[in-house]
Amino acid sequence: MKISVIGCGYLGAVHAASMAEVGHEVYGLDVDSTRIATLGRGLAPFHEPGFDEVLSRNVDNGRLHFTTSYDDLDDVDVHFLALGTPQRDDGLGADLSYIDSALDALAPLLKARNGRTTLVVGKSTVPVGTARTIGERLAAIPGVKLVWNPEFLREGFAVEDTLRPDRLVYGVADTADAADEVELLDAVYAPLLALKIPRRVYNYESAELVKVSANSFLATKISFINAISELCDITGADVADVAEAIGMDDRIGRKFLRAGIGFGGGCLPKDLRGLISRAGELGAVDSFAFLRDIDAINTGRREYVVRLARRLLDGELDGRRIAILGAAFKPDTDDVRDSPALDIALKLYSEGARVKVTDPVALGNVRKRYPALHAEESVEDAVRNADLVLLLTEWPEYKQLDPTVLRELASDAKIVDGRNVLDLPAWRAAGWHVEALGRS
Ligand code: UDX
């Protein structure tokens, strides 16, 4: 099939390449000509395991094209909307202007198809109620149908999650009258459906809510265990033990109970705040007050680490040398959006600390967005002469670090394990004072 993916940010670029990988002819469109030129050469503009191969293979075999011009999309049957919906500057809600501009540009092409069925598929995360408004606008054009099909991919597993998602959710205007659009989207996803991936057809509102509910629930799990972690610090309990044992109850589950410095990235914080905001607009303020606490517990973790650092440095951050291991919001990505690690780095820097940050892949983004922070290519250079080391992103290579070697480089052997991944006895045996969050 011939499909387009409008918006080639992280989600759109991965979706475009993955759809080409399963055999479709795909046109990825973005207004950012530099990005389109890079993608068109088969080069990934961000770090994502496995993406480079899928991208370059499909650019080379001629199934995947990138363009800045809507004229190239005139005989496309299925248009995916993968535009960003960033948090608005004026509050918690989402900025839908990129989707609006894309629809303005797309509408003349849809009209020109003279009633031939065309599917528009929204993948962006939007406040509940958005799809119906867009659907009503598109319904004025004969032959055009809108499906809202939320995306659940995780960074670091983006290609895998796109090609083998846990579920496919289709949001439609009326579940009793959606045979055409379901059939068309089933045809796009036929290779995934052949793998027996569950597919559900709901109304627009349910589909929209599935996405933000999932991310807000995951955020809730993390803040819950982080609150428990604080009690562990006070009482001497071990949060890893508590998480392990409660996770053995299937109703709770083991995942997303890793205590530490909390969640960040482009999705969890934004979706949580978006849900709070939309619930407020819809009159459900009180029932969603707890999500504000989930957010506050999360950002409070960052302050918690700053306080811990101050205490370990005898109450004075000014002029003290601090090495930060990890800048990305989680491993296997170079994404530094709302990174807890960098937020902590900036807070320490603003209190006068001499902060050095290292990361295996995200340093380019650190230099671009946070020029005030000193970026170091290697762990050794970051740790050399440090008064305190903070491990803030759990890159696998950091778990393998040799505490004896680093002991020789640091000025003072003090480390905070912000992600609870270090072998505490081994580090302590090598002479380090180790503080792990929620573990004694
Ligand atoms: C998330 C959702 O998982 C995904 O389904 C959705 O489509 C997009 O948002 P992502 O932002 O890539 O994906 O990251 P995720 O793996 O969910 O981690 C989010 C944050 O939570 C990271 O900062 C991570 O370090 C943190 N986290 C995760 C914890 O602090 N503890 C945990 O137990 C799990």
Automatic annotation (TrEMBL):
The keyword Oxidoreductase applies. It catalyses: UDP-alpha-D-glucose + 2 NAD(+) + H2O = UDP-alpha-D-glucuronate + 2 NADH + 3 H(+). One of its GO terms (molecular function) is oxidoreductase activity. Signal peptide: none annotated. InterPro entries: 6-PGluconate_DH-like_C_sf, NAD(P)-bd_dom_sf, UDP-Glc/GDP-Man, UDP-Glc/GDP-Man_DH_C, UDP-Glc/GDP-Man_DH_C_sf, UDP-Glc/GDP-Man_DH_dimer, UDP-Glc/GDP-Man_DH_N, UDPglc_DH_bac. It holds the Pfam family UDPG_MGDP_dh_C. Its EC number is 1.1.1.22. Pathway: Nucleotide-sugar biosynthesis; UDP-alpha-D-glucuronate biosynthesis; UDP-alpha-D-glucuronate from UDP-alpha-D-glucose: step 1/1. It comes from the Bacteria. Residues 323-424 form the UDP-glucose/GDP-mannose dehydrogenase C-terminal domain. Gene3D superfamilies: Cytochrome c1, transmembrane anchor, C-terminal, NAD(P)-binding Rossmann-like Domain. PANTHER family: UDP-GLUCOSE 6-DEHYDROGENASE TUAD (PTHR43750). Belongs to the UDP-glucose/GDP-mannose dehydrogenase family. This is UDP-glucose 6-dehydrogenase.
